From TrEMBL:
SUPFAM superfamilies: Duplicated hybrid motif. It comes from Comamonas sediminis. This is Peptidoglycan DD-metalloendopeptidase family protein. The lineage of its organism: Bacteria, Pseudomonadati, Pseudomonadota, Betaproteobacteria, Burkholderiales. InterPro entries: Dup_hybrid_motif, M23ase_b-sheet_dom. Coiled coil: none annotated. Residues 123-219 form the M23ase beta-sheet core domain.
Amino acid sequence: MTTADTQTDPIAEAIARHHSGLSAVPEAAAFHAWVAQQRGSWSGLMPGLAQARMGHVDFRSADSAVAAASASMDREGAIRAYEALQQSQGFDMGVGHWMEQRCVYQSSNYASTRLAGAMRDCHLGVDLFAPAGTTLRLPLAAEVVVAEVRDIRLDYGGMLVLRHQGPAHPEFFSIWGHLSHASARRWQPGDQIAAGSEFAHLGDFAENGWWLPHLHLQLCLLRLPDFSDAPGVGEQAFAPVWQDIFPNPAPLLRANDEALRS
């Protein structure tokens, strides 16, 4: 781990707490209790999510045709591989798993700044694959913290970070990646978005970082100094810490969250 000042680096502080035998995030237990009462309550964020037959889109192995085409930014190859996977497995909506260790994050951009020689390859959100232009409805009222376009290949493209605060749950943040550029430019930090609002659309390859059209949804229990740099993937060695900082969105998305792991 680096010698970063833990007073200005909440993630370093969480790692230090974990190494001391404490919960990495003190609010994690209360948040998980709230999630247990809210299972499936976010299923309306995307058309068909509640009923869709889910299929795993594998980014763990270089033998995965989707992973190989995505890593090489082969647009047509990725589309063909995804359609073939859909046909063979018979699913409506592809899903990329939370905490999955992936093979596609191999560039220097994913080198760890906390552990010498390590890569950041553990996926900290859930991916939901749907056509470009798919409308997203906000499940829970929020304040915009970040609204930006990260127009670099293999990055987020259009990105929003939202703050959720209410009497029934601890403050938390949601990270929405691979959106259209217009979705990000529509909002400014400080804007309030009502629950149920159509607030964003999925971007296509040229807008979403050159990935298959999909939503990267990630939750965060820490108030980070700069959410623009919130990690979407982390070091496998810190997996227990990531599970506290970036809890699994799957129970909110489907009442039977096993469907998101099938």
